[in-house]
Amino acid sequence: MTAEENVAPDEDQGLPSIPPRKRLTGTAKEEFDRATAADYTVKKASIRDIASKTGRSFGAVHRSLTRQKVVFRPRGGAHRSATEGEAQ
Questions:
Q1: Distances in Å between the alpha carbon of 30 and those of 48, 55, 62, 74, 81?
Q2: How far apart are CA 48 and CA 44, in angstroms?
Q3: Residue 64 to residue 16: CA distance in whole angstroms
Q4: Does the reported pTM lie above 0.90?
Q5: I need a labelling partner for 35 at 20 to 30 A (CA). Which of 18, 55, 78, 85 fits?
Q6: Are 53 and 42 a contacting pair, CB within 8 Å?
C-alpha cells in the first residue's frame, strides 16, 4: 500500500456535484443544505468555493446557508490598524 492510497480520495465527499439547472427538492435539498453548512462552518470554505465544487451559483449556496441559519463570516481579509501602517 503506497502513501497515496492512505489519503481520502476526495476531501469534499460531503458536497454533492449537481447537474446544471437541476432543481433540488425534498430530502436532496435538505442534504445539500446540511453539506454546504458543514463545509462553510467546519472546513471554513468560502461560498464561492462551495459554489464551484457543487456546480451551483453563489446565490443558491448563499440561500442554502441562510436556510440553515448559518452566521456568515465578515467580508474581506484582515485589516491593518492605523498604527501598523504608520512609519515608526
A1: 20, 17, 14, 25, 41
A2: 12
A3: 13
A4: no
A5: 78
A6: no
